[in-house]
Each structure stands twice: as C-alpha cells, then as structure tokens.
C-alpha cells in the first residue's frame, strides 16, 4: 500500500464479532489479503447494494436511469416540435413555388403533410416499435425499483 492510499484511510473502527464470524472472515481473506481489506470490501458492497443511500451504486444507477429517461422524453418532444415547424415552413415554400389548382390549394396545408407522414410511419411499424420500447423501458425501470426496495441479502453466514 502506498502512502497516498494509507493517508486516505483515516478512520479507525473497532468491530466486535463472534469467533465463528471471525473465522469466516479469516477464511475469506486467506493468506494473501488482510482481514481489514476483506471487511472494507464487505462494507462497501453492502452500502453499494442499498438503493436509499445517496452514495451507493444502486442509488446512482436508479437516478441515472431516471435522468436518461427524462432526457429521452425531452428529446422526443423537441424533435416533434422541430418536425412540426419544418412541415409548416416547407408547406409555405411548396405552396408558393408550385402552381396548384384551386381544389388542391385548399386542401394543401402543413397538417395534411404531417398526416401523410404519420400514415407512412404507421405503415412502417414505427409506432408499434416505439410502444414496445416504452413498455420494455417501463418494465426494466419497475424491476430495478423492486430490486432497490428489497432488503439486501444477509452478508454473514
């Protein structure tokens, strides 16, 4: 262990344990590792498996997943907004650059362009795929939340 590693470990904690528990810890450590290192790893794993502790990996994973999901929704909203704006702009350009007969000119609008585009997307299965992906995301998120709410398995035998 280098000086920088030893300087990071500043707190000394004394733990009382039964002879059987100490024997198990000693067995886990073997001849190659210190018992203190095994105990630190066990404590770190216990804390990381707790979803309600802010510094744990489970907490971070859950928060990260929620943030990514929120960003996906925001991105989807903004892409939809941009698509609508582009349809509006191009409908004006197309309307003024083409010579349309009177009947076509009355029905020609951005909403009609968007409706045609949506019909083509539905034909290609895009909507079905989006719903399947959303259901998978919801199921994975719910599964992770269920795992986070369960108490961690007992680490001692």
Provide keyphrases for this structure.
single chain; 157 residues; mainly alpha; rod-shaped
Written description of the protein model:
- This protein is an all-alpha fold and 157 residues long.
- The chain has two domains: 3-48; 61-149.
- It has helices at residues 3-8, 19-29, 35-48, 57-97, 102-107, 110-123, 126-149.
- The protein is rod-shaped and about 95 Å long.
Any chance you could write out the topology, listing elements then pairs?
Elements (H helix, E strand, L loop, with lengths): L2 H6 L10 H11 L5 H14 L8 H41 L4 H6 L2 H14 L2 H24 L8
Helix pairs in contact: 2-3, 4-6, 4-7
Describe the structure in brief:
By secondary structure, this protein is mainly α. It has two domains: 3-48; 61-149.
Mean pLDDT: 78
Structural class, please?
mainly alpha
- Total DSSP helices: 7
Low-confidence parts: none
Number of domains: 2
- The proportion of residues forming helix, as a percent range, comes to over 70%
Biggest sheet overview: none
Order of helices and strands: HHHHHHH
Give the C-alpha Rg.
Answer: 30 Å
Shape annotation: rod-shaped
Beta strand count: 0
Strand content: under 5%
Distance between the termini: 30 Å
